[in-house]
Amino acid sequence: MPEDRKAASGRLPEVLLKAVGSAFWRWLLLTVLVGSLSSCSRLKERDPAFFRPTGSPSPAAAPGGGPEAYQVEVWLDQPHPVPGEQIVLHGSLLKHGVRLGAIVMEGYWPDPVHPPGVPDCRVQVIYGSGVCNLDTSGFESGQVVTLRVKFIYQGETFWGKIDLIPE
Question: pLDDT band at 42, cuts 50/70/90?
Fold first, then answer.
């Protein structure tokens, strides 16, 4: 076989592999993206409550653009726990309906360990929701306990609250 023909035949598979390889990777990436998006929409159809908090928005979030610009949502995984039960307090700060992340949420509730004004919980908001765990053993059955959350965003403070009634 002549030398130039050997060189050409040696390059042909490389060129084909590059052409097929790049098309294959584009196809694979597109398939993964479409599959991911469709699985997210199917999850939402199966369990719409998973994506919606059960608490009501707080009208107290008015700074910086009026009440329509910012909104605080606060909700509990268990609004009527048995005293001594561990519960989860969730909070979100929304701007024009979009949940904000990479901000700090502080949680406040009656707690003999922390003096008033000192947060009982301080967490980084991830995926648009801050999460605080709290023990209800210090709360009396039937008594309303107000839980508050605070967000500081771009130099402004936003508050939200929810009431808890241990059974």
Answer: very low
Q: Residue 4: which pLDDT band, with cuts at 50, 70 and 90?
A: low
Find, among 156, 99, 105, the residue nearest to 132 by Cα.
Answer: 105
pLDDT on residue 11:
62
**pLDDT (mean) for 18-26:** 65
Q: How far apart are CA 13 and CA 18, in angstroms?
A: 8
Assess contact for 164 and 144: CB atoms under 8 A.
yes
Look up the CATH number of the domain holding residue 140: 2.60.40.2410
Using CA atoms, how far apart are residues 159 and 96, in angstroms rounded to an integer? Answer: 16
Say how many domains are in the chain. 2
